[in-house]
Automatic annotation (TrEMBL):
One of its GO terms (cellular component) is cytosol. The keyword Flavoprotein does not apply. Keywords: NADP, Oxidoreductase. This is dTDP-4-dehydrorhamnose reductase. Catalyzes the reduction of dTDP-6-deoxy-L-lyxo-4-hexulose to yield dTDP-L-rhamnose. It holds the Pfam family RmlD_sub_bind.
Length: 285
């Protein structure tokens, strides 16, 4: 087994590396400096120099939802690059894994989204991700496309870290309560993805932590855990006049993967607890 891990400096890439190091699995970790997955020549050269790759796990993505409204690069990275990597995987006979998002949905449903629900992204980010999913699944039958939501991990900036940073300098915070989904700990996402990959039951899956939360609920939980003494108020998405629209309700149903693996994914609160422990260990809290 020899794995190519793209986007390896991000939250999910970081946690995959931890798994592979622990299990002594051979891998090549790249970020855009080592391999630009949007560049055909780069890809060609890389695979000529690195033979015997059995799995390609693509953790690279364009995740700046607001900037994506005007930056065409979002389509290169989220739609075209995964399809190219699926084509390469097919050529070399490697298993391909890539990630998508709850933002492929419009948020108008009142119950958790399942894999078969029709996508209808309301932002360029959401639309580009949906296009990426489609391209991969149509290109190569040994692919996993894994949708997730509200990812947080130790290796990068995320909502939890933002809330903690805000709490250091403010006595009052207002957080939106009209965006509902589920926060997902990147360590759990990596672990359950790896278990899924072993099954070779290819296709489209949802992997998130268990439960449901608004951004307000998530912030409240984090702030209580760190003992913040300020005042937390509720706000609405429209108060912030952001360039990109967000789905109001985008909770994903992960029962397909849980049934396949015969295992429940931990609750998001457990993910936050372990994330905060990690921050403490790193001296960040």
């Amino acid at each position: 087994m020899k794995i190519l891990l793209t986007g390896s400096n991000g939250q999910l890439g970081h946690d995959f590396k931890k798994i592979f190091n622990k299990k002594n699995i051979e891998y090549i970790a790249t970020d855009y400096k080592e391999l630009d997955i949007t560049n055909d020549e780069d890809l060609k050269e890389f695979f000529q120099e690195n033979e015997g790759i059995t799995h390609i796990i693509n953790c690279a993505a364009y995740n700046d939802v607001d900037k994506a409204e005007t930056d065409k690069k979002v389509w290169l990275l989220n739609a075209e690059a995964p399809k190219k990597l699926a084509e390469v995987s097919k050529e070399i006979g490697a298993v391909f894994v890539t990630y998508s998002t709850d933002f492929v949905f419009d948020g108008k449903k009142n119950s958790p989204y399942v894999e078969d629900d029709r996508t209808n992204g309301i932002s360029e980010y959401g639309k580009s991700k949906a296009q990426g999913e489609k391209g991969v699944l149509e290109t190569y039958d040994k692919s996993f496309v894994i949708r997730t939501s509200w990812v947080f991990g130790i290796a990068n900036n995320n909502f939890n870290k933002q809330v903690i940073n805000w709490s250091k300098s403010r006595d009052e915070l207002n957080i939106v309560d009209d965006q509902v989904s589920v926060p997902t700990y990147s360590a759990d996402l990596a672990e359950f993805s790896w278990k899924l990959i072993q099954t070779e039951k290819f296709g489209l899956y949802h992997i998130t932590n268990d439960g449901i939360a608004s951004k307000y609920d998530q912030a409240k939980y984090v702030l209580e855990k760190i003992g913040w003494k300020g005042t937390l108020g509720k706000a609405k998405t429209d108060d912030f006049n952001l360039p990109a629209k967000r789905p109001a309700y985008s909770k994903l149903n992960s029962s397909k993967v849980e049934n396949l693996l015969g295992e429940k994914i931990p609750a998001w609160q457990s993910g936050v607890d372990r994330f905060l422990e990690e921050m403490k260990k790193n001296g960040e809290l």
